[in-house]
Amino acid sequence: MKKSVISFVCAMLVIALLGFAVINGVDFGFFKIPSITNTDEGVRLGLDLVGGSIITFEGMADDTISAEDLNRDMNAVESMLRGRLDYLQLYEASVYRVGERRVTVEIPSISDPEEAVQKLGSTAQLEFTNADGETVILGSDVKQATAKFGALDNTGVQQNYVEVVLNEEGAAKFTEGTKKAASASDGKNYILITLDGEEISRPSVNAQYATTGITGDTVVITGGFTAESSGWLANVISSGQLPFSLEQVEMRSVGAQLGMSALSSSIKAGMIGILLVMIFMIAFYRLPGVVSAIALLFYCILEALVLVIFRVNLSLPGIAGIVLSIGMAVDANVIIFERIKEELRLGKSVKSAIDAGFHRAFSAIIDSNVTTFIAALVLFFFGKGTIVGFAITLGLGIILSMFTALTVTRFLLNSLVGMKISNLKYFGAGERRDA
Amino acid sequence: MKTFSATKNFKYSVIVVVVLIAAGLFALLSAPFGLNLFNMDIDFAGGTTFNYAMGKQVDPTMITEIDAIVLEATGAKASSIQSAGDGTEVLIKTLDVPSDMRDSLHAKLLEKFTLTDDSRLDVQNVSPAVGKDMQTSAVKAALMAAFLMLIYITIRFDFKSGVAAVTCLAIDVLIMVSAYIVFQLPFNMNFIAAALTIFGYSINSSIITFDRIRENMHLAKRETIDSVVDRSVRQTLTRNINTTMTTLFTIVMIIILGVPSLRNFAIPITVGIVSGACSSILIAAPLWATMKNKEKRKLAK
After folding, report:
1. pTM of the model
2. Which of A43, A166, A375, B237 could form a disulfide linkage to A170, CB 3.0–4.6 angstroms apart?
3. Nearest to A57 by CA among A127, A116, A140
4. Please, are residues B231 and B216 in contact by the beta-carbon 8 Å criterion?
5. In whole angstroms, what is the distance from residue B133 CA to residue A105 CA?
6. In chain A, pLDDT over 90 holds for what percent of residues?
7. B28 and chain A: CB distance < 8 Å anywhere?
8. What is the average pLDDT value for chain B, to the nearest integer?
9. Contact between residue B58 and residue B87 where contact means Cβ atoms under 8 Å apart
10. Dist CA A259 CA A261 (whole Å)
11. Would you say B16 and B65 are in contact if contact means Cβ atoms under 8 Å apart?
12. d(Cα A194, Cα A126) in Å, to the nearest integer?
């Protein structure tokens, strides 16, 4: 009797302590459990909850490209996208390859997703051509590009511009190109500067350069820049053009507002769901119902612990998975308790009825959990996008709930029985009848 | 109290099932012939959706105005424009349009309805190629799950119970498809997730029932098969109903309180859970009894 009371109290203490730990967060120095509300160190909220964009680009490489070359180029694309994100100060963003020729960029809390799509996806092919469309120099001829601000002529008007330093070969080509442009007829004596086919500016070349061409390795690009746009241009020219153009093939962008309301309403749904399940279980199964309610609470705490310790990325469907698994978590208890009731009606003692209940319900519980777990597993490997989050939380929920339903409930129920609480009334099996 | 007999009422159960799966079955069978009855979401078909908070009730005039803006910005008419959420949101569905057109649509909407950047609740764009990939992985997932489930059931059950349980799964998923058709739920990756969940979950009731039938068959040698099955169904009825109830408590709360995208996910799961419990009791058990009786008659001959 005494032993049972102690073990029951101990179990409750453990549950309470774990609950406290996961709600408030604890730091043991060597090991830290972040609070469930701490999204910086604990559970990660998916972009569909905090708002943000997930953009997938496809590399428009030739079909003839070898797998090796494609891989090399896609790696280059990946690192260049990283560079561009850093330049845009989107340090929280992540970039990863998907399949052979796709790369996905995830950017949290971004207000203008279309700008991100266009900037990240630009090939950044810089081209100087003459009026006849002949290439003078390309981005690959550039050694370095810098954004500057200052006066470029004696008018003293200060402006933003990009200073481009050409390599030796580029400088020679530029001299040759300007010589040709300078000697062209009026209206055709210019150099067209384009980025990804869009005109930036078309400075004309003075006739005085017709014999010599413009020498030197430094070229200045103007074109009504702001500090921001000249900086971006210098950056993309410096880091070079992408090996092939990128096409945005998928974009999912969620505003922070929608994400927040999705999160709070799902948490509310989960809370009310838990409460309803607990009330139902207690109303129907009395004492074992109370035990299953405690086990359910413990299950929620365990789930939260796993989420924060393993830093699970929680998506909106992921929350649906958790809420659904709460409802499924007590299924095993229902099966066991019904069995216990039956055994009690057959006249068995409470202790042996509980043992028999757990023993005989075991195979049915394993079977039903395995099949649901198979479904979660398949979804995890074959699912796409946020639905994978559903597979994770559903699978996790099945494993954890099986543990709490089989071991925790049994332990608590046995210690209660040890306390001599064995009136059949408490088991909701007062009336004996044949089924 | 008159006791219910699952075996005696089997033929009525079958009639009800046929009615319920008719819409889904017809839609699935007619799909390869180009008749699409589904509300195809951009996940599978490709396209773009825009969701804006308009700050006031969306009315037909507003929809006409948006329609004109979409045509101007993207060069094509919207596939659909409808109010969403509490009626102050608008959901615009268009073809797969590139970033600059989406940008221009955004700018035009902001100007016309004096909105801010925050009014853009979400934008989703899927190219037809990605949609195709999604379809492929969806089909792969469904086939894989069905295959694994069949293996597991074959190992754990005898052949007849396996056939009965899998028949029920097929019925459950077809009823879910019917729900998609009748309620015109957006048909997307969520369907696969919902269907697989039901695949895994709704077999539980069948397992519980068959477990009991197996146990009772050992004990009762002289009883008829029908009577053993009916008794087993009655004995497991409470737990089948209760396990279903507890799961419904939580999933229905999502339907009541959740955001639209989750609601569209929770509705088919709810349909599947209810159908799963009913089909296990009303179809799986009596179907098994029918097969077993046939076998017995054969042996007797």
Report:
1. 0.85
2. A166
3. A116
4. yes
5. 18
6. 27
7. no
8. 90
9. yes
10. 6
11. no
12. 6
